[in-house]
Amino acid sequence: MNNKCTCAAVPKRYLMMTLVIVGIQVILWQTVSYTTYCFKWKDYVPYRQKEPFVYSHLLGLLLSLMPASLVSVNCGANRVFGASLLTLSVLLEVAPLAIHLGIHGLAGAQFLNGAAEVGRFSTTINYFAVHSISQAFVVTSLYGVLADWTPVDERTTVVAIVTSSIAWFVLWYLLFFDDPYHNESVTEEERCRVTEGNGRTSPSSEPGPVPWRQILRSTPVHLVCLCVAAGMAEQRLGKYNFLMYLGGASTFPSLSSVLALAAAVVTCGVASDCLRNKGLVSTTGAARITCVGGLTIHACAIMLQGLKESRWIEHIAMTALGVFFVGIETSHLDMAPRHAPVLKALSATTLGVLLGGISVFAISDTSSLASHRLAHVFIPVAQVVTALLYLLYGRADLQTWDALPELREQNAVCESASPKGCQEEVQTQRPQGNIEENV
User: Fold this and answer.
1) Is the Cα dihedral 224, 143, 252, 34 positive or negative?
2) Structural domain boundaries in the chain
3) Integer Cα distance of 132 and 148 in angstroms
4) How far apart are CA 298 and CA 277, in angstroms?
5) 255-279: per-residue pLDDT in tens?
6) Considering only CA atoms, which of 144, 140, 139 is closest in space to residue 129?
7) pLDDT confidence of 389, banded at 50, 70, 90?
8) Are 12 and 181 in contact (CB under 8 A)?
9) What is the CATH class of 12-201+217-393?
10) What is the DSSP string of 352-368?
């Protein structure tokens, strides 16, 4: 690549974010267009034959998320993300053809491409999601890209912008084939700003073994997985799904509603970064405000929506869910920038197991009284309890097990020798204060 290419002085991380948004948006557009316009899934495939869809979705999810995260960590998140987007978009083109192969042929295709779960609206689908092998690589590698390319004081803003319009890939390899530690077109000033606090201090910092024991025994990791599962559990019912609400798979909300929701979510992300950058709140404090506040308000609004349906209450619920989504997803990057794909794979696997359990054992009819109670009573109560647990025990600061091996060894020596003096020495090697001052 050209060493002097700085793209007209535009920071490369902003170009990266733009391509991420456009790439994922293309995937969602393809998904929504196939499910809403190409086929009336309920008329074509009887609901009693939907089990292969559920099983293929769950099996593909559980078997692919963790390997995808390991590939992203060891092979480079940028490469994996670009290849996954290309593969997924190509496989989505096969979905209309695969349906003519019958229910089992389509289930086999969806094992690779995504899980098409047939809903029970009278004329169209109720819920459609892509969580498969290709999608698992997209999701997990995305977190590796964001952890590598976003500085600490911009993470919440970037995640808010990406998720508020989440949803391509021709220029990806041309501009971002290498990570910021090896990319020759990135200026040294931007490289310093981006890599500060990401756990890798030089191009020679190779990925080490994943500290599975520390990750699996970490209470903050447990709470992140629990929050993701609790916050997104309702999407199995086809209700209050933040991403599908923006995409409007079945009913398109008004443009003003979507713009207001996106503006509120992005504003919360910018405010969170400003508060952290000025030192008014810590990283953990910002995560607790967005996660606990968003999830609690969402749960209360859902309870009210169960008593009396209102479009305004639904907007409040979706906006609060968006704020929660931004907070909890940013915590993946803050807690473990070097192992963000692994952490995302764990939380997504927990969510997949929960959604599969609800689908197989709890939901027989999304329009039934039991489904209504589950969506408007039991799940909101579980969300409030989860929010309280995160408020008391949740953390979003950089975890010790995510540090480089040499820093972990130095921390161990410090704990047995002189903790105070050693902590100051480690802090000078891995500053986490105001990045502007360091640059």
Assistant:
1) negative
2) 12-201+217-393, 403-438
3) 24
4) 27
5) 566 677 778 888 888 899 899 888 8
6) 139
7) very high
8) no
9) mainly alpha
10) HHHHHHIIIII-S-TTS
